[in-house]
Amino acid sequence: MAWSPQDAMKAYPQTLQLCKVQNDHKLSEPRCMEFLSALAAGKRARLMVQVTAEGITPLTIALAVAAKQTGGQLVCILQQREQVEKSRAWLMGNDLEDVIELDYGNPCEVIDKYMSIDFAVIDLRFENYLRLSKMMNLNPTGSVVVANNLEPVRDRVPLFEALKGKRRLECVTLPIGEEWS
């Protein structure tokens, strides 16, 4: 995965704008979402996967902006069917329905459908996140995996251990988000 500063720079302000619109719903604070959008776009990620417990969030929007920038696709895996319909309605009004595929079910079963993932975000509130991280089919030329809602002491080592052995994957903890402030 090559770095594209132009794609990163274009995704950043678009994410700021859409997160500002989405913030009216108060789903979560859009801190660091701009960075993740720029990272995904800058890495020219084509297949992005988000496993979330919350439905559409500012992070989903950030990844969708990156997908739109790179001509890629964001797959948002939701655990409940009701979240899909609610999320689909929101997407229709924000010109993002063409870049987001909403899927639902047990993420450990659904993830098998997606091959060569370039950029993944796993919500660590999902009980089986370690199993899920081992099952992901990551792009062999390089991938980025983001752990969302990481509790610094409890979660860091097990996730890194689960990902160890995946080709062309390095693990780094960045002190961004509410837990680190």
From TrEMBL:
Alphabetical list of InterPro entries matching this protein: DUF1442, SAM-dependent_MTases_sf
Transmembrane annotation, as ranges: none
Pfam families linked to this entry: DUF1442
UniProt xrefs under PANTHER family: DUF1442 FAMILY PROTEIN, OS08G0110600 PROTEIN
Protein's name according to its UniProt entry: O-methyltransferase
Record organism: Rhamnella rubrinervis
